[in-house]
Specification:
heterodimer; A: 314 residues; alpha/beta; Rossmann fold; five-stranded parallel sheet; 9 strands; 14% strand; globular; B: 429 residues; Urease, subunit C, domain 1; TIM Barrel; nine-stranded mixed sheet; eight-stranded parallel sheet; 13 helices; 30% helix
C-alpha cells in the first residue's frame, strides 16, 4: 500500500510513480467536491496549515488556501511584510516560531532554490514546496499531469513539449521530473540562452526550432516569459521572442490535430502565447486552475492523513 | 633545550630521503639527522617509531580573518586549528576588514601574531588598495615588513593591464602574485558549478570556462612579462591543462589545489547544504579527476585548504544566501591520507612535498626541509590512526565542513615548531 503520510513534498525529482498515481487518483475525487454545491469537508478538521509565501503569488497561494479550507483545516497566511522577517529574524527562527504554534503542514514559496530542503532540516511539520526559485514547483507539475490525464486519458507515451524559459523555470523542472516518471516523451524548446543542452542528461530532447519540436506533439506546455529578461542578453525583444517561439493558432498545425495547450499562468498574451490559442478549444488553461485546487487538496490530505484513498462522503 | 625525535620514518622530499632515522634538535634548530643519536636526558626523547616524520606542513592559503572579523576566526583560534591539524606554518589572506594593503596593517598584525600565534604565520598582502582592482597596494612597504606574496583572493583581478603592472611591480621584491581565477561576468549570480547538477536543481552556475579564461589570461601575462604567477585553488580540467602546457614552455606558473576539489563532486550539492558551498565551486567528476591527475604528474605544486571560517549563523541559511567557504586546517592531513595516499593515488613523498617542501619553495621560505641548521619545524604523522571528524571539537571558530562525520585513516600525531611541541595526539599544547 502506498502511503505518503508525514512525507514532505520538496519536488517531483525522485518521487516514485505509485505516489504520483495516488495523488492524481485522490485529486480526481477531490475535483468532484470542488465542482459540487457543498465543498466543505471535514477531512482535515482540527489540523492547521500555514502558507508562508516570501514571493508574491495570487493563484498558488489562493489555491492552497482554498484547498486547505475545503478540507476543513485551519489556515493562516504568513507574509514577510509586517512580520518578524522584516525585523531581521532568521529563516530558521521564523520556521521554529511557526512550528511552535502547532502547525501540521507548512506550504512555502521562497526565492532561494533549496529553501524547502533547509526548512525540512530545521523543523518537523510537513513541508510542501509551492515554488523555490528556479528549482521546483511540484504541485504545478502534478496539476499539469492531472490535466493531461483528464483530457488525454493517459500520460505514458505522450509527446509533451515544454516551450520557453527552461533555465529559470521551476514549472519546467517539476514537469520534466513528473512526466519522465510517468513515461511521457518530453521535449524542450526555447532560446539557446534560456535552455542549456546539458538538460538532455535528464532524459529529454532539446530543440531550438519550434516547428521541429512541435512535430507530432500531444501536449504543449507554454511557460511564462519574464519580460525582464529581454534586452539583457537572453533575447533581444519580446517581439522577437514571439516571432520565434510564440504559440500561435497557425503553428498548432505543426502538432497533432488534437493537441492540448497548457499554461501555468499568469500569461503574457501576445508574447509566449497568442489570444486565439489560449481561448481556443485546444486550451485547458482555465481548467488547470480548478485542477490546481483539487491536486493541492489531495496533497494536503494524503501527506497529513495518509492512506491510499479518500472517502469524500464523510 | 634539546629534543630527540627517535626512530621515525623520515620523509624529506628536498633530499628525496625516506629512511628510519633520528633527528636531534637543539635551541629550536635541527642539529643533526642520523642513526643512533642520543640525548643527555631520557625525558628529551620522543619515540617516533611507527610514525612518519616530515618537514613541518605549510598551508599557504588560509583566512585567519584578522583584522576585523574576529567573530569568524582569530590569530589564536586559527593557529590552534593549524597546530591541531599538524600544520606548522600558514599564510593568511588579506581579504580582511580593513584589507591588508598597507605596511601599518601588516605591522599591527605581526604584533598580534607574535603574541597569540601557536604556529608560524606568514602574511599575504593585497595586490590592490581595498582589493578593488584599481590602484596598487603599498607593495614595497609591505614587502619590507615581510609579506610573502600578494593576492586579491576572493576576487579575480579583472583588469588585465592592472594585473600586468601588479605582476611587474611585485617582481622587484621577488614576491609572487596569487590570483583567484574566475571571470566576474561569467559567474555573476552563480553559487555552484554549472553543469548537469545545477541544471537539475535550477541553480545559476559558475561555469568552468570562467576559470579557464582567467587562468589563461594570467599565464599569458606571466609569459609576456617573465614574472611569476601562482594560481589559487585550481579546479577545472582546462585550467590544469593550461598550467601543464605553460610549465613545458618555461612559464613561471605554479598552482595549488584544495583537498575538497580533489575529493568531492557537485553531486554532493543536491541537498543544498551550505557546508559544500565554496568558490571556485566543487565541480563535476571530470574536473575533479583532472585535478587529481595534475597533482600526480606534478602540474599542481601544492595542496592548501583555503580554510575559510564563518560564523554559525552565517552558514545556517539558505544555500544562495550563505557565504562561501569552510574550514579545513583540522582535516587536510586526514583527508589527504585517507583519499589520496591510502587509495594509492599519491605516495608519501609526493604528499609531503605538496603539503610542505614545494610550498616553501613557491613562497621563497627557508623551510620545508629537514637538515642541520634549519628551524626545527616538524609534522609527525600516524598513517593508520582511524578517527571520525567531529566539527564540534574543532579549535577553529568555524564549524562548517563537508568532511564532518567522515571516517579518516591517518592523522597528524604531533607538530613541532622551533623545536617545541605545539600539538600532541590532537591536543594543542
Amino acid at each position: 500500500m502506498v502511503n505518503i503520510q508525514g512525507k514532505s513534498l520538496l519536488g517531483l525529482q525522485g518521487v516514485p510513480r505509485e505516489e504520483i498515481e495516488l495523488i492524481l487518483r485522490v485529486a480526481k475525487k477531490m475535483k468532484a467536491v470542488v465542482k459540487s454545491d457543498n465543498k466543505k469537508l471535514s477531512l482535515l478538521k482540527g489540523k492547521s496549515v500555514v502558507n508562508m509565501f516570501w514571493e508574491p503569488s495570487t493563484r498558488t497561494r489562493g489555491s492552497f488556501e482554498m484547498a486547505a479550507k475545503y478540507l476543513g483545516a485551519d489556515v493562516i497566511n504568513f507574509t514577510p511584510r509586517g512580520s518578524s522577517i522584516q525585523k531581521g529574524e532568521s529563516f530558521r527562527d521564523t520556521l521554529l516560531t511557526v512550528t511552535a504554534m502547532g502547525v501540521d503542514a507548512i506550504v512555502m514559496r521562497q526565492k532561494q532554490e533549496g529553501s524547502p530542503s533547509f526548512a525540512q532540516r530545521c523543523v518537523d511539520p510537513i513541508i510542501i514546496n509551492a515554488g523555490d526559485g528556479a528549482h521546483e514547483h511540484p504541485t504545478q507539475g502534478l496539476l499539469d499531469m492531472f490535466t493531461i490525464q483528464e483530457v488525454k486519458g493517459r500520460i505514458e507515451g505522450l509527446k509533451v513539449v515544454i516551450v520557453g524559459d527552461i533555465d529559470h523555470g521551476r514549472v519546467a523542472r517539476s514537469n520534466i521530473y513528473g512526466l519522465k516518471t510517468m513515461g511521457a516523451d518530453v521535449h524542450l524548446v526555447g532560446p539557446r540562452t534560456l535552455l542549456q543542452p546539458e538538460l538532455e542528461a535528464m532524459g529529454v530532447t532539446v530543440h531550438y526550432d519550434l516547428k521541429e519540436a512541435l512535430k507530432d506533439a500531444d501536449v504543449i506546455n507554454v511557460l511564462r516569459i519574464q519580460k525582464e529578461r529581454q534586452g539583457i542578453g537572453f533575447f533581444p525583444s519580446a517581439g522577437e521572442y514571439n516571432s520565434l517561439f510564440g504559440i500561435k493558432k497557425d503553428r498548432l498545425k505543426w502538432a497533432k490535430d488534437d493537441v492540448l495547450v497548457l499554461h501555468p499562468g499568469p500569461m503574457n498574451r501576445g508574447i509566449e502565447i497568442d489570444s486565439d490559442v489560449c481561448y481556443s478549444e485546444h486550451s485547458s488553461i482555465q481548467e488547470q486552475v480548478m485542477n490546481g485546487v483539487s491536486v493541492r487538496m489531495a496533497v494536503l490530505y494524503l501527506t497529513i492523513m495518509g492512506g491510499d484513498d479518500v472517502d469524500i462522503t464523510r | 633545550m634539546t629534543l630527540l625525535v627517535k626512530g621515525g620514518r623520515v620523509i624529506n622530499p628536498a633530499m628525496q630521503q625516506d629512511e628510519i632515522c633520528d633527528i636531534l634538535i637543539e635551541n629550536g634548530k635541527i642539529k643533526e639527522v642520523g642513526v643512533n643519536l642520543t640525548a643527555d636526558n631520557a625525558e628529551d626523547v620522543f619515540d617516533a617509531s611507527g610514525l612518519v616524520v616530515a618537514p613541518g606542513f605549510i598551508d599557504m592559503h588560509v583566512h585567519l580573518r584578522q583584522p576585523g572579523q574576529s567573530g569568524k576566526e582569530t590569530i589564536e583560534t586559527g593557529t590552534k586549528a593549524a597546530a591541531a591539524g599538524g600544520i606548522t606554518r600558514v599564510a593568511t589572506m588579506p581579504n580582511t576588514k580593513p584589507v591588508i594593503d598597507s605596511a601599518i596593517i601588516v605591522d599591527g598584525l605581526k604584533y598580534k601574531i607574535e603574541r597569540e600565534a601557536k604556529v608560524k604565520v606568514e602574511i599575504i598582502g593585497a595586490i590592490s588598495k581595498g582589493q578593488k582592482g584599481q590602484e596598487l597596494s603599498a607593495m614595497g612597504a609591505m614587502a619590507k615588513e615581510g609579506v610573502v606574496a600578494f593576492s586579491d583572493d576572493g576576487h579575480y583581478v579583472e583588469n588585465s593591464d592592472f594585473m600586468r603592472k601588479a605582476m611587474e611591480y611585485a617582481s622587484m621584491f621577488h614576491k609572487i602574485i596569487i590570483d583567484h581565477c574566475e571571470d566576474d561576468n561569467l559567474i555573476e549570480g552563480g553559487n555552484m558549478h554549472e553543469g548537469v547538477v545545477s541544471n537539475e536543481l535550477g541553480m545559476k552556475g559558475r561555469p568552468a570556462v570562467a576559470e579557464d579564461i582567467a587562468v589563461a589570461r594570467d599565464i599569458f601575462l606571466a609569459e609576456a612579462t617573465g614574472t611569476p604567477v601562482h594560481i589559487a585553488h585550481i579546479s577545472t580540467k582546462n585550467a590544469v591543462d593550461l598550467v601543464r602546457q605553460a610549465k613545458k614552455r618555461g612559464v613561471k606558473v605554479t598552482a595549488e589545489v584544495t583537498p575538497q576539489h580533489l575529493i568531492f563532486t557537485d553531486e554532493a550539492l543536491r541537498t543544498f547544504e551550505t557546508r559544500y558551498k565554496m568558490n571556485p565551486p566543487i565541480r563535476s567528476d571530470i574536473h575533479r579527476d583532472a585535478c587529481v591527475e595534475g597533482l600526480v604528474d606534478g602540474t599542481i605544486d601544492a595542496v592548501v585548504t583555503d580554510h575559510a571560517p564563518h560564523e554559525w549563523e552565517e552558514k545556517d541559511q539558505e544555500f544562495n544566501l550563505a557565504p562561501s567557504g569552510f574550514v579545513g586546517l583540522e582535516t587536510s592531513v586526514g583527508a589527504m591520507l585517507t583519499h589520496l595516499y591510502h587509495t594509492g593515488i599519491i605516495d608519501l613523498m609526493t604528499m609531503v612535498n605538496v603539503m610542505s617542501t614545494a610550498q616553501a619553495k613557491i613562497l621563497g621560505l627557508d623551510a620545508g626541509v629537514i637538515a642541520p641548521g634549519k628551524d626545527a619545524d616538524l609534522t609527525i604523522l600516524d598513517l593508520d590512526k582511524e578517527w571520525t571528524v567531529d566539527s564540534s571539537k574543532f579549535y577553529s571558530k568555524g564549524k562548517s565542513t563537508p568532511f564532518d562525520e567522515m571516517i579518516f585513516k591517518g592523522k597528524a600525531a604531533a607538530a613541532i615548531v622551533n623545536g617545541k611541541f605545539v600539538m600532541k595526539n590532537g591536543e594543542v599544547l
